Amino acid sequence: MEFEQILKLIEAVSESELASFQMEKDGLRLSMTTDKMPAGAAVEPVPETGKEERGASESRVTAEPAKDSAEPEAFLSDRVVKAPLVGTFYAAPSEEAEPFVKVGDTVKKGQILGIIEAMKLMNEIESEYDGVIEAVMIENEQVVEYGQPLFRIR
Fold first, then answer.
1. Domain assignment of residue 55, yes or no
2. 19 contact partners, CB below 8 Å, separation of at least 6
3. Same domain membership, residue 130 and residue 72
4. Are residues 29 and 70 in the same domain?
5. What is the Cα–Cα distance from 3 to 120, expressed in whole angstroms?
6. 62 within 8 A of 73, measured Cβ to Cβ
7. Which of 29, 64, 88, 146 has the least CB density, counted as fewest CB within 10 Å?
């Protein structure tokens, strides 16, 4: 199965009413679960703390600001760059190199913020906004889910 086909499948499952999906083809096993409730299911209120986000294709994702963020509890902006795919996040082009961005850095739309490795392919994550990095919500070499918040920009 090709990478583009997997992305289309993820999108289709995310947009559907399915709560879970599993598939095995040519030695590749794919399993996805969402946080969607089946019709008629009871819904319990979730307290809003400002830290929890719902992932588009996976269950709840907790997104916390980086430790060097000036305001860990209150954010000034709602502009968030999210992971466009599932993979491993890298903050720098190599182990010895400086991170692409840090909290407080000014960024331009299209500037590289990080890399996500998926199926041996390196995918550059570009800023969707002009602004200042308010929070880095992911650690280097951490596995990310589709739609998981990575950066908050003000």
1. no
2. 33, 34, 36, 37, 38
3. yes
4. no
5. 10
6. no
7. 29
In angstroms, the CA 26 to CA 134 distance is: 43
Residue pointed to by tokens 């991170």 = 99
Are 84 and 120 in the same domain? yes
pLDDT tens profile 47-67: 544 444 444 444 333 334 444
CATH of the domain at 96: 2.40.50.100
Residue-wise pLDDT tens digits, 9-46: 777 777 777 667 777 777 777 777 666 554 444 444 44
Q: Which domain holds residue 13?
A: 1-39
User: In angstroms, what is the C-alpha Rg of the chain?
Assistant: 17
Residue 24 belongs to a domain = yes
Percent of the chain at pLDDT exceeding 90: 42
Give backbone dihedrals phi and psi of 55, rounded to 5 degrees, phi first: -80, 150
Residue burial 36-63, b: 16+ Cβ < 10 Å; e: rest: eeeeeeeeeeeeeeeeebebbbbeebeb
Q: Are 90 and 140 in contact (CB under 8 A)?
A: yes
Query: Has this prediction a pTM greater than 0.70?
Result: no
